[in-house]
Structure to design on (247 residues):
């Protein structure tokens, strides 16, 4: 038996229409899982890639900038075995100038909604007498301070702490809660950094692997934390960072 096989399981992936979320969804599908993709825009490319792998696919349109859509999302998704809290946003400004609006927008999406969606899905598992897997997409800024992204750093630090807390509460219920902390990846969120010649050079100089991560680099970690191979892994935040934190 292959402990990494996800055949017969369904994964709900938020923010699956682009970037890291798309790569995670496709990676889980390649391992055998059917995919429920939640996002603000239609996940057309994600759907095509998943269906090409012969897996089932369902798209749910929802703006996870608030908790309002959560009951509908859970109802539309139906039974799932895996939840990946990937949906996120970022706002950049000096902390002296940072607005409450930018603070709330990031905290609501990255932390508040991730918690209440996890709660809603976990309730269905407990009611059904089954376990499940939750993967929170954290960040290097779950460990470090960063600059000019105060609400993002706060939200991702909070998400790492929440991962540990939920693992402590839910491990005995058969629910594995873990996180993945991507390093510096080529996505929409890092476009400004990659376009800044000085910042791009400085970042690459610190990454032992010598390159920005490709979203597909996350797939293996997501499959591991979704599968029986990680049955005794609870409350960890796995860095997939090209060696950034080791530097």
């Amino acid at each position: 038996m292959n402990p990494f096989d996800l055949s017969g399981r369904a994964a709900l992936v938020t923010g699956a229409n682009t970037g890291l979320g798309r790569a995670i969804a496709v990676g889980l599908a390649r391992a055998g899982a059917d995919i429920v993709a939640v996002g603000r825009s239609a996940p057309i490319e994600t759907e095509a890639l998943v269906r090409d792998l012969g897996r089932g696919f369902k798209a749910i349109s929802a703006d996870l900038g608030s908790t309002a859509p959560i009951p509908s999302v859970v109802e539309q998704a139906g039974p799932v075995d895996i939840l990946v809290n990937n949906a996120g946003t970022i706002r950049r400004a000096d902390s002296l100038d940072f607005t409450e609006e930018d603070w709330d927008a990031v905290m609501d999406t990255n932390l508040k909604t991730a918690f209440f969606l996890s709660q809603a899905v976990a309730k269905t598992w407990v009611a059904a007498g089954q376990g499940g897997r939750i993967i929170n997409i954290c960040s290097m800024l779950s460990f470090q301070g960063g600059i000019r992204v105060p609400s993002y750093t706060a939200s991702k630090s909070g998400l790492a702490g929440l991962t540990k807390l939920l693992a402590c509460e839910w491990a005995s219920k058969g629910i594995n809660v873990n996180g993945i902390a991507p390093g510096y990846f080529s996505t929409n969120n890092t476009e400004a950094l990659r376009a800044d010649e000085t910042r791009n050079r400085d970042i690459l100089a610190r990454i032992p692997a010598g390159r920005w991560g490709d979203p597909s680099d996350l797939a293996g970690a997501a499959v591991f934390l979704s599968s029986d191979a990680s049955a005794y892994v609870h409350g960890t935040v796995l860095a997939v960072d090209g060696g950034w934190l080791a530097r």
